[in-house]
Amino acid sequence: MAKSTPSGLGGGGDAGFGAAPHERPVPRISIQAFCEFPDTGAALQRAAADRRLAKAHVTVQLGGIQAAVEHHAANPTPNLLIVETRLQGKTAVDEIDRLADVCDPATKVIIVGRVNDVELYRELMRRGVSEYLVAPLNPLHLIEVISGLYLNPEAAPIGRVVTFVGARGGVGSSTLAHNVGWCIAERLKINTTIVDFDMPFGTVGLNFNEEPSQGVADALSSPERLDDVLLDRLLVKSTDHLSLLASPAIVDRNYEAEHSSYEAVLDTVRATTPCVIVDMPHIWTPWVRDALLSSDDIVIVATPDLGSLRTTKSFVDLLKQNRPNDPPPKLVLNQVNTPKRPEIPIKDFSETVGIAPSLVLPFEPQLYGSAANNGQMVMEVQPRSATAESIRQLAEMVTGRAVQAEEKGVLPFLSFLKGKKTA
Fold it and tell me: Is 29-150 a CATH 3.40.50.2300 domain?
């Protein structure tokens, strides 16, 4: 039972960006755990609830090694067996030998102990144990260990999925997703794909002044055929670093697709692109819920009104319950200070939903309208505006990267000359 070492990310300007190796979803395996102490069982249960273990079938029970030996003397062992022992030294090794007698050769074994014993660790490694962990367990560390056991060192890196969702229609979620995606691609120089899942009403083609595309619809209709070659044909290449998987934006068509098709499309896109921006439609279906919960990062866009407050609170509660090991979503309050509209104060809004906004964007219809009509992004229309600066900040938040100082401070006419020089 040799251990796998997660491979590193790499590749040009995207080196080091994307989902970390241990963040890859664990495959569909069976995991059975036998614990001696309640705190270990609680940590395992918390790990089992994590999105990265969503495909695995996890069973946790008390009893330790003795219970594992008795159970598996009459039942086949799972893909991964996690057992806790109170014992130390030679007595612990003897118990592990008894466990080995009832284990299938292909089963990987993680032993959880209470002592940090190097000699015991070495002895267990000689016997083919995959890992020895010292309690109390950290759920995230446990997930990382499990992921490492099943990660192919030769596997290519996968991209990070950042999903933008609106608390209601018309809050500007799509516009913000497109602007942040453009900024990540053009200012941070990270290859990025924007996926527009709003089939009948998507605006990614309009906002980037591109011809209508059947990209997403065709990908969802035949996900089993979707590979790197087909995906490349479906993508619209907007710039050197930015690609669009656009929606048809046609209402006279049925866009029903299998639940699993959406997951398959995102898996294929993130296998080819370091950063994937998902523009989520304002609907609520099982596939939307699953796509949201499985994202690496989530941005909720809301306006300071009662409808947005209610839905944002529901989103935050759902994510907190189903993503216990992930940080909270990022909240953007948009269209603040709209004339003649009563608004909920930002302080009251954040206290009610339980998270503070990462960004507060003012109501600027002239700026966004000009950009949309020209098929441009805000940073192209007014690169030195406060809104453009806020978009840059959000791009840096979701990537953990920073725009280079010379890019931040470049004057508009220098930007123009730079564009002329490369044209």
Answer: yes
User: Higher pLDDT residue, 9 or 395?
Assistant: 395
Counted residue by residue, the chain has a size of 423
Instruction: Give the whole-angstrom CA distance, residue 290 versus residue 292.
Output: 5
Look up residue 108 and give its two tokens: 């990987």
Closest among 51, 53, 62 to 84, alpha carbons compared: 62
* Tokens standing for residue 214: 């059947």
Evaluate whether 22 touches 143 at the Cβ level (below 8 Å). yes
Tokens representing residue 59 in the block: 């069973």
Secondary structure (3-state) at 49: coil
**CB neighbours of residue 422 within 10 Å:** 7
Domain ranges of the chain: 29-150, 160-422
Per CATH, 29-150 and 160-422 having the same topology is answered yes
Phi/psi for 108 (5° steps) reads -90, 145
Cβ-count burial 230-260 (b if 16+ within 10 Å, e if not): ebeebbbebeebbbbbbbbbeeeeebebeee
E strand spans, 151-210: 160-166, 192-196
DSSP 108: E
* DSSP codes, 397-422: HHHS----HHHHT--HHHHHHHHHHH
Q: Looking only at Cα atoms, what is the longest distance across the chain?
A: 77
Asked if 279 contacts 173 with a C-beta cutoff of 8 angstroms, the reply is yes
Q: What is the chain's Cα-based Rg?
A: 25
Q: How many CA atoms lie within 13 A of 56 on its CB side?
A: 29
Tell me whether residue 400 is exposed, middle or buried, using C-beta atoms within 10 angstroms of its C-beta: 0 to 12, 13 to 18, 19 or more. exposed
User: Each residue of 373-407: pLDDT tens digit?
Assistant: 999 999 999 999 999 999 999 999 999 888 876 55
The model's pTM: 0.82
Reply yes or no: is the peptide bond before residue 339 cis, omega within 30 of 0: no
pLDDT digits (tens, 9 = 90+) for 110-154: 999 988 888 888 988 998 999 999 999 999 999 999 988 987 766
For residue 229, count other CB atoms closer than 10 A to its CB: 8
Q: What class has domain 160-422? A: alpha beta
Amino acid found at 416: F
> Which residue carries 């998270």 as its tokens?
355
